Amino acid sequence: IVKQKKPASLYLMFGSELETINTEQLIVEYTKLVNSFKSAVPEMKIYVMQYPPVLYDTDTLSNEKVNDYNSRLITMCNNTGVYCIDTNTALKSESGKLNEAYWSYETLTLSTEGYNKVSEYILTHVVQ
Question: Are 110 and 51 in contact (CB under 8 A)?
């Protein structure tokens, strides 16, 4: 679809698999996907958004694991020549966890405020 539509920009955020897939394997697959998109539409700008912090650490997902993954994303972006947007930091509280104002207990996803914060951050950090 990307090859057919040829968008000027593509925004990607993956990481929900961090609870079940090895971080290294996830980066390998992400790199393949990014390279596939670059081959399909070389002139397209690709923006990789970092995975957001979690509100509470669990046995399978912690902010330490998210931070490691995001650090690897930066390296992947540098190696593949695409942009990395630090949406993680934009959503963090002073304690390094997800700012509770950006979480919806009803939907168990980012709140409207959280999505607005991500949108604002993207708009001030992308290449025009």
Answer: no
